[in-house]
């Protein structure tokens, strides 16, 4: 016999996966921003 679906658990799992993917994208975006930032700071400091 097939088991009854657990919609609440399935929904939570989808939401968890979506949140993890969103956090990963945000972390990558922040890391890319940080990599480009130090180059800008050194140019600004040498101009002073």
Strand portion: under 5%
Domain count: 1
- Beta strand count: 0
Low-confidence stretches: none
Give the C-alpha Rg: 22 Å
Helix content: over 70%
Oligomer: single chain
Class of secondary structure makeup: mainly alpha
Overall shape:
rod-shaped
Straight-line N-to-C gap:
76 Å
Order of helices and strands: H
Number of helices: 1
Largest sheet: none
Mean pLDDT: 87
Biased composition (Basic and acidic residues): 9-48
Region (Disordered): 1-48
Protein name: DUF4169 domain-containing protein
Structure in words:
The chain has 48 residues and is mainly α. The protein is rod-shaped, with a radius of gyration of 22 Å. The chain starts with 6 loop residues before the first helix and ends with a helix. It is 85% helix and 0% strand. It has one domain.
The gist of it:
The protein is mainly α. Helix content is 85%, strand content 0%.
